Amino acid sequence: MSQRLLHWAQLVRLPNVFTVLADVSAAFLLVAGTHQPVTRFACVLLAGVSLYWAGMILNDLFDLERDRAQRPKRPLASGAISPQAARIAGWGLLILGVVLAAASGKIPYENASGDAAPDTWLPAAIGCALAIAIVLYDGPLKSTPFAPATMGVCRVLSFLLGASPMLLAVPGQPLIPKFILGVAFGFGVYIMGITTMARDEATGGNKINLRTGLMSIVMGVVLLAFAPGLARHPGAFKMFPGSLFPVLIGLIGFPVIIRAIRVQFDSDPLKIQNTIRAGVLSIIPFAAVYAMIGAGRFYGLAVFALVIPAILLAARLRVT
């Protein structure tokens, strides 16, 4: 990888993009039960990545002056990437993400009966909401107590974006099923906890933030563990989430929770950063479990395989 590409990879936090691919894929597979129609699937994946990368770039643009003083080695603060280039890329990707989200609900395909499936406006609405939440987090809300909740909202909307191209209006039924909302809020509350713990990662962490973050992480894991129980028709799952499903989710979350407990007693910045890294990358196995119950073992393994490039890149590039 050339030095210039390496700087851009750091700017967009390249290891983290695999968590977006994972949760957007899991949401789509949970609703559709397969990767078909592949055109809508690919389009919504690209939308999720575009919006995520936009958020990472705009984050550093809004923080440029502070980074020049506190984190001078970051790509923008060091001058490795010009603010003008980052501005074009960040706002361009934000617009592209919304356009791709809207397109994912308009691409024609045939349903199981061979009939033309209707368009849906939902991806466009969620894409716009996610873009607004990204700008609010990166800009006016980042230094306020609302920042972690806003980041959680971004992850909720990211998951819902993945599900949205296949959520078609059915008379007498909610547009977004309760269990999909349950999973989305599980991811959102979990990420809210990670973000709360990360607020002072460079200086060793604030005790209130560390404790609040731990509680939020635990609550997010609990929501993820029991969200399938909200399904009205669990028979639609390819693999029924039985009584051991909460145990599986708990085992995935356990190492992160243990790390989060340890930093309550030793808030060394490096240990907090390692906890954040583990927490962020754990989104992939969480998503893989949901891909598995929605579409089967093959899809679950395919999503879980995203852990490999994420971990390899995280060894070289920062995820926070």
From TrEMBL:
Entry protein name: Prenyltransferase
InterPro entries the record matches: Prenyltransferase_related (IPR050475), UbiA_prenyltransferase (IPR000537), UbiA_sf (IPR044878)
Localization per Swiss-Prot or TrEMBL: Membrane
GO terms, molecular function: transferase activity, transferring alkyl or aryl (other than methyl) groups
Transmembrane spans: 12-32, 38-64, 85-109, 121-139, 146-167, 179-198, 210-231, 243-262, 274-293, 299-317
Record keywords, A-Z: Cell membrane, Membrane, Transferase, Transmembrane, Transmembrane helix
Key word Cell membrane present: yes
Membrane-topology descriptor: Multi-pass membrane protein
GO CC term (a single one): membrane
Origin superkingdom: Bacteria
Keyword Cell membrane annotated: yes
Predominant subcellular localization, coarse grouping: membrane
Annotated Pfam families: UbiA (PF01040)
